[in-house]
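Issue 218. Parser rejects a valid record. Input:
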Amino acid sequence: MQERVQVRGAKERGAQHTPWYVSTAATQATKQMRPCRGIWDNGWQCVLAQFRPPFLHTRSSATHDIMRKSVEFREITGGKHRTRLWRKLAPPILICLLAVGFYGAAERFGLFTILDLGAFDYFLMLRNHFSPPTVPDNIVIVAIDEASMSELGLQWPWPRSLHADLVTTLVEARAAVIVFDVLFLDPAKTEDDLVFAAAIKNAGNVVLGEDIVIDADATYRPGTYTHRRIWERPLDILLDSAKRTAIATVVRDPDNFVRRAFLQTDGIPSLAQGAAEVYLETRGKPVETSDTVSAFGLPHNLDQPLLINFLGPPHSYKTVSYFEALEPQKYISDGLFDGAIVLVGRAMMGTPDLGSADYFAYPFMAPHHPISGVEIHASLIDTLLRRRYLSQVEPPIERLLFLLLLASGAASLMATRKWYGAVLFWGFAILYAIASFGAFYYRGHVLNFVTPLACYTGFFLIERAYKIIVVDREKRFIHKAFKHYVPPAVVDQLCESPERLNLYGERFDVTVVFTDLAGFTSMAEKMEPMQVRRFITGYFTEMVDIFMANNGTLDKFIGDAIMCFFGAPMRTPEHAYQGSLTASQMSARLADLNREWEAQGLPPLFMRIGVSSGPVVAGNIGTKDLFNYTVMGDIVNLGSRLEGANKVYGTSIIMGEATYALAGGRFDTRKLDSIRVKGKKKSLFIYELLGPRGTVPAEKDRVIKAYEAAFEAYQLLDFAESLRLLEGILGRTQDRPSEVLLKRCREYLVTPPCAGWDGVYEMTTK
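Output the parser choked on:
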């Protein structure tokens, strides 16, 4: 292994690959430059070389020890065949895929269905706590209860003549619809059926219930599910007399709770739908059989069960005992039944077994207090008539939301491995739960959030286990191997994000913005130091807010000057636009500030801004103990020179030709000049940035066009034509760039430029 790790001599400097050069000291830079090869190309030794360069020039035992440890570290982390990006993204991606697979399995096999249903129940109760629903006046329950049995001295089943008396009484009380949640399957031994049928026919608004049962023996016979069902319908004499019959069957969820109901079965309406349709018919709003969905404004088709929006605990609706309904003048206030849907059904106060014919578990069930079947139908009728619908979110949408949650949580853990990454991770989970309740509370959308949160938690546990087993082990190795060779702060950065730290910097395409305040120095001389501090702090705050809003990075403050850049550390093709927009907004904001300062008795200030774009090296640049994130490159110096060039042309913002090529078409600009800055051989065109596209007034636009025509003539050595155009501009308005160019034209008319002149103006100052 040590044969691969070596420092090669000067004879190999002409090899195929460009080597890393590391100097032992600044005074020996030329004398002792040596290339690093092999494992050194991308290993940690290139980091060490900056801090302990003598190790590269002696073959001591310490050198071989650190080489050996570095090779071991590379083997642990996957060697040279694993890229930085894959090293960072592979674990969370694989864990995310595992979480997605777990979510699919949980959804497919209903692993958390019971918990999701329980969460729905809790949401209902929580909603009622914050906003108790109102009790409708048009739904009344007549309960066949223990009190009625005691008062009437009868055991169930009661004579049907008694039901006939109740129907007659309710008709006299002007009940809109009478609904019996009672099955009348067997004929009576007396003529009570005739009496009851006559009362029903006379009322003309009675809805009777029917039921569906499964033939237990049918499982041994061939045929479809339809063939295994048995319809239990009322007696023919009652069937012919009733306004409508409807199915009173109740649907249970996997936990045996009632939360939803089918409105139709094989085209036959449920008891609730039948009662609601008859009620609407009495109000002059008949419902067509094929128009149920639109008539009731249902959130989905009839092939899906409708969630019942329960009003609250048992006995939430207006309820009277059967014996009281028989004598309303004695027991009931006037008008209780007037225009109401009256449901008649068993509602015992005892504690029968759940799942019996008349009692059911449901979301608001308190211990030993299930809900009666008749109140379930009342709740569904109320849901239909008041359109208090709850709609289950479609599975594809739930999956998409889970993926967004998982991606957000994974990104928060990837962004930082510190404790606040976990806080942000669980913050997303809490936000998801709150959003789920908010969607339920305000829009009635039911979102299964236990399943995604359970899978989300599984992702976190696996990710933490990976961190403890793998990542923390690597951290300990890095710390142990390098704590003697690099500063502690850098060790911490290496431990947290070794793949992101590049002390040599990294190439970026950026846009650099330099700003400077003209007149601030003289103004500051007249102010107290604390006044200067408050003033400059306020100014910096305004300017920093602008470029931060445009995704800029602050490089430094230099007196009253600001240097910021765009495109690093986050790469973006929009860096030129962001930088140019920032310059324009800064200039506009300074105009507003000048008006405020003028009201305070302060003189106005003028801002000069230079904008340049191009390649730089961005990274932590400085000493081994003290450095900051900054950019280095020719365009940095150029941006500073362009800022200073505003003094010559009397402009506010000057951009270089690279910036203009990238973003100039989105702004109003003026082609100012072709210059060669001091100390440079290459020339460039410079442009005045005037503002976003279309914001320049018409008169200013005419000046710009005339100036650019004059500049074109100037470039072609037609100084007389250029002079004529410039004089025309200055005859109408003041324009400092025109004055500058006019002065040159006059000079060149007197003393023409030398042969071979390229039209470039040499800047003599910085």
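Fixed in the parser; the record now loads. Residues 697-756 form one domain.
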